[in-house]
């Protein structure tokens, strides 16, 4: 069974600083994708970034990057130059590339950005 | 492009009442999902539909039923609501892109349900 672990229930960061949100996963799938979602206080789930298990380079999307360490089964989200609007819940998820249609989500990390 | 549309956004029920949460997607996606989100629990899968005509139980299916009406629509029904079903419910969908792993899951805006 797949499992996603986000060990940081809450994180605090100063505006303009970088922050890393941890995510480890446990899967027997050979080919899979890793995803990060943001959930602001308004409640919607916003897709941020994707990393494929066979991608050689770490994914980047603007200020978001995914630090993918396959051997350690780690997929940490790095937010550079934090902004007040980054305050939200962040969820890590993993899904097999084929066969299984069910993504597995972590319990989330609450990020608060201080001015 | 509306994406995933959920109705209603808010609902208050009394214990024992029934209701149906509606979900529709306009992205021609095959797979659709219903989740509930409770504080500290993340997203828990209630039911999913891998394709039109099929539905399967997820992690927490008890007390719920679903219908995949057509490719676009996937509804969630509470036959006899209980206070334990007070939660935020999300519908989501994923398209299949021919072997690509990048099947992003798109979410509706959520339904806040309170059962008194």
Please explain how this structure is put together.
The complex is a heterodimer of chains A (115) and B (116). Chain A has 115 residues and is mainly β. Helix content of chain A is 0%, strand content 52%. Chain A contains no helices and twelve strands. Chain A has strands spanning 3-5, 10-14, 19-21, 24-26, 32-39, 46-52, 60-61, 64-69, 74-79, 88-96, 104-105, 109-114. In chain A, a hairpin with a 2-residue loop joins β7 and β8 (64-69). The mean pLDDT of chain A is 92. Chain B is mainly β and 116 residues long. In chain B, 0% of the residues lie in helices and 51% in strands. Chain B has no helices and eleven strands. Chain B has strands at residues 4-7, 10-13, 19-25, 31-38, 42-49, 56-57, 64-68, 74-78, 87-94, 105-107, 111-115. In chain B, the strands form two sheets. In chain B, strands 2, 4, 5, 6, 9, 10 and 11 form a seven-stranded mixed sheet that branches. In chain B, strands 1-3-8-7 form a four-stranded antiparallel sheet, with no helix packed on it. In chain B, β4 and β5 form a beta hairpin. The termini of chain B are far apart. At the A-B interface, β5, β6 and β10 of A face β5, β9 and β10 of B.
Give a short synopsis of this structure.
The complex is a heterodimer of chains A (115) and B (116). Chain A is an all-beta fold and 115 residues long.
